[in-house]
Design a protein that fits this description.
Chain A: Keywords: Membrane, Transmembrane, Transmembrane helix. The structure holds two protein chains of two kinds. Chain A is an all-alpha fold. Chain A is 77% helix and 0% strand. Chain A has two domains: 53 residues; 121 residues, no CATH class. Chain A contains seven helices and no strands. By secondary structure, chain B is an alpha+beta fold. Chain B has a three-stranded antiparallel sheet with strand order 1-3-2. The two termini of chain B are 24 Å apart. Classes of the chains: A mainly alpha, B alpha+beta.
Chain lengths: 185, 100
């Protein structure tokens, strides 16, 4: 009986916060069962139910999606940092402009931060990092084109992967919030 | 056009068990024994039924003194109506199966 109580306490702890009253319900039910093997089997089932309540299929899909997109974003950010290091150590054949180094560093760091914000889903961190990645490119493109130098167009291409990243984050957030279909639909 | 049926056989079983005495409060362990469903299947169903307003829940003091209260369940009016509709749906199906 003691083992059944340990298992049901674990089940109550595994349940999400908004289901705590159901954890109490399960606990009270196990305490009311007189047969120890029955109580243990019942508690084991409750633990399974609690795990299923915690890890739904949709949550698993959203988590996997965020992990994959976050990994690609982190690799993309790391690529910028590698570019920056190569440029700074003189492996690049062309002279490096200081503002290009700042832009590349900002892109690399902001993408790494966006990847962390996406995987652990901290919306404020994610959107701040995306904004930080967008702003320098936007400023360079707008003011650069204002000087009629078409070379500044190359600072516009990262907007496409950033738009894809933002779209993926919005889609995954929508999937997470999507209401469950009612039983009597 | 056929109505979409989202009710699993387990949900149907629980609804039928609760609909036998719709006014009576039932406990999880008793429902599990009566329906033959394990608690791992039963509780997610009870949670979903309660979420959808088909099941009402209440903490009730057992008849035996000195026992802690237990969480009890019974169908709401909407739950009773759904159980009746599903029971009617099941009758023609059962008749079809009996004749084949």
């Amino acid at each position: 009986m003691k083992f059944a109580l340990i298992v049901i306490d674990l089940a109550a702890r595994v349940l999400p916060g908004h289901r705590q009253s159901w954890g109490e319900a399960m606990r009270a039910e196990v305490r009311a069962i007189e047969s120890a093997p029955d109580a243990l089997a019942f508690a084991g089932g409750c633990l399974w139910a609690a795990l299923c309540e915690r890890i739904t299929v949709m949550k698993a899909i959203v988590f996997t999606g965020r992990l994959l997109v976050g990994l690609v974003t982190a690799l993309y950010g790391a690529m910028f940092l590698v570019m920056m290091v190569n440029g700074l150590t003189g492996q690049s054949a062309q002279p490096v402009m200081p503002w290009v180094v700042v832009w590349v560093a900002t892109m690399g760091l902001s993408h790494l931060a966006a990847a962390a914000g996406l995987v652990f889903w901290r919306p404020k961190l994610f959107w701040s990092a995306v904004a930080l990645a967008v702003l320098p490119g936007l400023v360079l493109t707008v003011f650069g084109l204002a000087t009629q130098a078409s070379q500044f167009l190359r600072f516009a291409w990262p907007f496409l992967p950033l738009a894809l990243l933002a779209g993926a984050a919005l889609f995954l957030a929508w999937l997470e919030r999507r209401p469950r279909r009612p039983i009597a639909a | 056009m056929a109505r979409r049926n989202h009710i699993s056989p387990q949900t149907r079983t629980v609804l039928a068990a609760l609909a036998v005495q719709p006014q009576a409060w039932r406990y999880g362990y008793d429902l599990s024994k009566e329906t033959g469903l394990k608690s791992g299947t039963l509780y997610p169903l009870l949670i979903r039924l309660a979420d959808d307003g088909l099941l009402e829940t209440e903490w009730r003091q057992p008849l035996q003194p000195g026992r802690p209260p237990r969480h009890a369940y019974r169908l709401t009016a909407a739950g009773i109506a759904l159980a009746q509709v599903r029971a009617q749906d099941a009758v023609p199906t059962a008749n079809r199966e009996a004749t084949t």
